[in-house]
Design goal:
This protein is α+β, with helices and mostly antiparallel strands and about 170 residues long. It has six helices and eight strands.
Length: about 170
């Protein structure tokens, strides 16, 4: 796995180029391993608490796409969270989750316009992308074999797509 240095700030989002995504689910696996206790594939599959991925590869109109929390500026999940488990980090723009406060009501799951939050029924908490706080990059982006995932600004992503078309 190559490390991709990414400046983490308010303008950075993880984008998926649907023309490159082949639904290999490497991003899902990398995410689950990153959120395991061991951070190692071989050891993570035997851990007592199976690690959960925080993104999903879906098919939309015949194209595959890696769906992540978009860390919306006006996050409906934060507004809907009755326990205060979800909040916005003013410095980074990230939508943060405090699992200790989560009561598993799934209001965030129901209000997410991207379907990027899922319920973990075993732990009775919501699970969402946390932007890999223990890394300088994003596990999903760093491991994507086709380069479909991109971390950057909207302008940078649009420029990348425009360059590709030429």
């Amino acid at each position: 796995m190559s490390k991709v240095k990414v400046k983490k700030d308010k303008d950075i989002t993880i984008y998926c180029d649907v023309t490159k995504c082949v639904a290999c689910r490497t991003c899902e696996l990398a995410c689950a391993v990153e959120h395991s206790k061991s951070k190692d594939l071989a050891n993570s599959i035997i851990e007592k608490d199976t690690p959960r991925k925080r993104l999903t590869v879906s098919a939309i109109n015949g194209k595959s796409i890696s769906v992540h929390c978009q860390h919306c500026k006006e996050a409906p999940c934060v507004t809907a969270c009755m326990s205060g488990a979800l909040s916005k980090d003013e410095k980074t723009g990230a939508t943060l989750q405090d699992n200790e406060k989560c009561v598993g009501c799934w209001m965030c799951v129901m209000t997410c316009p991207f379907g990027a939050i899922v319920g973990d029924s075993a732990k009775h908490i919501a699970v969402k992308c946390d932007l890999c706080p223990d890394r300088d990059d994003y596990a999903c982006v760093a491991t994507c074999p086709t380069g479909a995932l991109f971390a950057g600004t909207k302008k940078e992503f649009e420029k990348k797509l425009t360059k590709k078309k030429k």
